Predict the structure.
Amino acid sequence: MAEAVEYLGTKSKFWYRDGERQMLFKAEERGTGEDWAEKVACELCALLGLPHVWYEMAVDINEMRPGVVCGSITPPPLALVHGNQLLLKLDPNYPAESRHRYRTSEHTVPAVFEVMTRLQPPTPGWCPDLPSGVDSAAGIFSGYVMLDAWIANQDRHHENWAAVWNGDTLHLAPTFDHGASLARNLSDEERYERLETRDRGRHISHFAGRARSAFYADRTSSQPLSTFDAWRSFAGLVPNESRRWLKRLEAIETADVQWVLDQVPPDRMSSICRRFTLDLLMENQRRLLDRRKP
Ligand SMILES: Nc1ncnc2c1ncn2[C@@H]1O[C@H](COP(=O)(O)OP(=O)(O)OP(=O)(O)O)[C@@H](O)[C@H]1O
Ligand SMILES: [Mg+2]
């Protein structure tokens, strides 16, 4: 039973209660696979050891709509403070209320990094498996940006990262909202063509390089950075911690990813979609690890 509607974000969502827990249902109404993408990304976060919101695939049985559910990051008295509000605190001219969340050139790597240097890491309950040596908010956030490059998440705009305020301290929030990743809205025809083509320009390797982040190099840039360049920029600011994330990524094998994809029910993810998603992830993993070499 819905208790409250969540108006932030673009998808239809409502809050409900599971015992004492405050839960959010995010509907997948557009048929673009945001439910499986959210769940697969969640499992990949777990493989990496990132602090992340835990999502489960779900159905709203009142309206028979598919979606995902997750527990609240901020049960009372905690409060969520989004990236745009944090950036506004450091720069009174930051366009926090801008309706164009993706075209905010003030959403720069240096500005977001500056916010990170002022946050505490997520509280220990969110961090059961951090790599040793990764303990700052900036170092942990670099892991979120590496995840985005791996899963082709183009959606890390300034309301898709946040801090948790406990009345005294601001902690980086776990990573959330990965439903717009993994090229989940391609048609199966296009997936098939990109898997099978001999045309290099259409191939998955070329496709993988085109993913755009929501971060800019500086506020005069006309284009956002690619997801890979965003990662390289953040990694350059926290080189030791970002190397530890790459080591985690390196340890993930094809079979681990395949296993995650195999758990998605067949009516939510076709076999061609599974094949394409595996190839995309392995291609992005290879590109992230290749870039380590000078
Ligand atoms: N687990 C959670 N705990 C607390 N608040 C949450 C949680 N999940 C989502 N929210 C709140 O709801 C907002 C929208 O959720 P989310 O970003 O997942 O949805 P969305 O519709 O996919 O967003 P977008 O338009 O960015 O794609 C978040 O910015 C946050 O304020
Ligand atoms: Mg969102």
